[in-house]
Amino acid sequence: MFYRKTVYWRTTVEPIKFSIIVPAHNEEKEISKCLESIKAAAAPYGEQAEIIVVLNRCTDRTEEIALAYGCTTIKNDDRNLAKIRNAGARAARGEILVTIDADTVMSSFMLAAAEKLLATGLFIGGGVTGKFDRMSIGITASVAALSVPIMLKYGLISIGIFWCRKADFDAIGGFNEGMLLAEDCDFARRLALYGLRNQKLFGTIPFAMTTSSRKFDQYGDWLLIKRPEIIAAFLKENDQKLADQLYYDFEN
Question: Residue ranges of the Glycosyltransferase 2-like domain (predicted)?
């Protein structure tokens, strides 16, 4: 009599230090600069850093460029940045998650600074401060016009690039998928509150990014002064029409 022996193979995914998540909708003009900056910041970590590009309804060369840089690519077709970022987080192997937009460049010290702050045990994670690649009086006024009501609603927070341990990201449920706008501000507030409950601070890494002024280039530097309905939409959080215009259908 012969017996069939069934062998069960156990596969494990080896953890790494960093997973950097980049949402991207038709970003062939911008994403190379973003990925170059991540590669430079991640150079000291070697194979301990991965870049996950979440392709969102891309019809250009974004995927080709991402693969050329050795990135992991996944697809998500939702018109919802929270869902797009969360899809990247689910695929992540890193102990530390970092989120950055495809039109943003991180400073060379950004990842090392995040690791150092988290290693102290004093910080739950946080955001960064930075600058636009072009400034003007109109852009400054527009940013101020949005920043004040956002600060009054969500508190004194920093956004731009987020960094935290994946365990803490999962503990607060990631980004709020019920929001179409200001999901980053909401995430920062919830992460900060979770940190307080665990006797940890929400940190800010200064001068850690440069982001594109392309929306001001297209719509005008005084955009948020001339169109206060955009500020109202951010506070409302679920204006699909404006969300599509500013993010999900925006073409550079």
Answer: 19-107
- Helix, strand, or coil (residue 73): strand
Question: How far is Cα of residue 109 from the mean position of the Cα atoms in its chain?
Answer: 17
Query: Quick check: 83 and 173 in contact, CB under 8 A?
Result: no
Each domain of the chain, given as residue ranges in start order, spans 16-248
Under the banding of pLDDT at 50, 70 and 90, the label for residue 13 is low
Share of the chain above pLDDT 70, in %: 95
The CB-side HSE value for 1 (13 A sphere, CA atoms) comes to: 1
| Residue 182 confidence (pLDDT) | 92
- Using CA atoms, how far apart are residues 128 and 162, in angstroms rounded to an integer? 7
Distance CA 174, CA 160 (A): 16
Q: Strands, DSSP E only, in 78-157?
A: 94-99, 104-106, 123-132
Q: What is the pLDDT of residues 81-123, one digit of tens each?
A: 999 999 999 999 999 999 999 999 999 999 999 999 999 999 9
DSSP string computed for 197-221 = HTT-EEEEEEEEEEE--HHHHHH-T
CA distance 220 to 209: 22
The CATH classification number of 16-248 equals 3.90.550.10
Which amino acid is it at 1? M
Task: Give the span between the Cα atoms of 35 and 51, in whole angstroms.
Answer: 8
Q: Return the percent helix, strand and coil in the chain, to nearest 5.
A: 45, 25, 35
Sheet containing 104-106: order of strands: 72-75, 49-55, 16-24, 94-99, 159-165, 123-132, 201-211, 104-106
Q: How far apart are the first and last CA of the chain?
A: 70
